Amino acid sequence: DVKVTQSSRYLVKRTGEKVFLECVQDMDHENMFWYRQDPGLGLRLIYFSYDVKMKEKGDIPEGYSVSREKKERFSLILESASTNQTSMYLCASTLGGVPYEQYFGPGTRLTVT
Amino acid sequence: ELKVEQNPLFLSMQEGKNYTIYCNYSTTSDRLYWYRQDPGKSLESLFVLLSNGAVKQEGRLMASLDTKARLSTLHITAAVHDLSATYFCAVDRSGSARQLTFGSGTQLTVLP
User: Fold this and answer.
1) Given an 8 Å threshold on Cβ–Cβ distance, is A42 in contact with B104?
2) Could you report the per-residue pLDDT of B42-83, keeping only the tens digit for each?
3) DSSP summary character for residue B26
4) A49, A56 in Cβ contact below 8 A?
5) Which residues of B are less than 8 Å from A43 in CB distance?
6) CA separation (Å) from A41 to B18, B37, B71?
7) Taking Cα atoms as reference points, which of A9, A39, A23, A111 lies closest to residue B37?
8) Is the dihedral of CA B76, B108, B50, A2 positive or negative?
9) Pairing outcome for strands B55-58 and B32-37
10) Contact yes or no for A33 and B31 at CB 8 A
C-alpha cells in the first residue's frame, strides 16, 4: 500500500513565523503535490514537483515556497505565516504514468494566530 | 482554465433511497477520479475512470464517465449511514505532472 505521511496533524503558529510542513511518501512516486483545503473551495493546488529539485507553481503559490531535495520528501514552507494561511494542508503523490491517481497524506491543520 | 462543478453541494437523504451526484467539467479530459473524505480525515480514492463510457462499481456506489458531455455521475443505491461523507470529483488537467482540478465537494448525510 502507498503510504503518504505528513509531519504534523495539528500545528499552531504565530503571525510572521516561518513554518515548515513536511511530506514523505514510500512508493517511489515521481510527482508530489501540496494543496490547501478550505470549506466551500475544495482543494486548491499550491505547488507541485515532478522530479527531485524540480518545482512548479500551482494555482495559489503566493506566500508559499517548496523544497524537494530527495525523491520521497516534499516540503512546504510558509516564509512568514499570516492568518489567512490558516487551513488544512494536504500532500499527495502519484506515479509518473497512467492512471495518475493521487494518494493523499492525513493532512495538517494549521492555525495561525 | 479547467473548471469542475459538482452538484448538489449538500445532500441529505434517507437510508434506503437512491440518489446521484453530478460532476461537470469545462474542457476535454479523458480521466476523472472520485474521492471520499470523512470528517477530519484525508481523501481516499474511490474510483478512477479512464475513458469515455467507463463505469465502475463498489458496493452501493457506481461511477460513470461521459467525456463527450463532460459529465461524470456518482450514483448511490439504497443509501446507508456509513456512506455519510464528502465526495469529491477531480479531473486530469494534462501536463507533465498530471495535475488534478477538484470540484468543491458534495457533503452527503444519510439519515436513519
Assistant:
1) yes
2) 899 999 998 888 999 999 999 999 999 999 999 999 999 999
3) S
4) yes
5) 43, 88, 90, 102
6) 26, 14, 20
7) A39
8) negative
9) unpaired
10) no
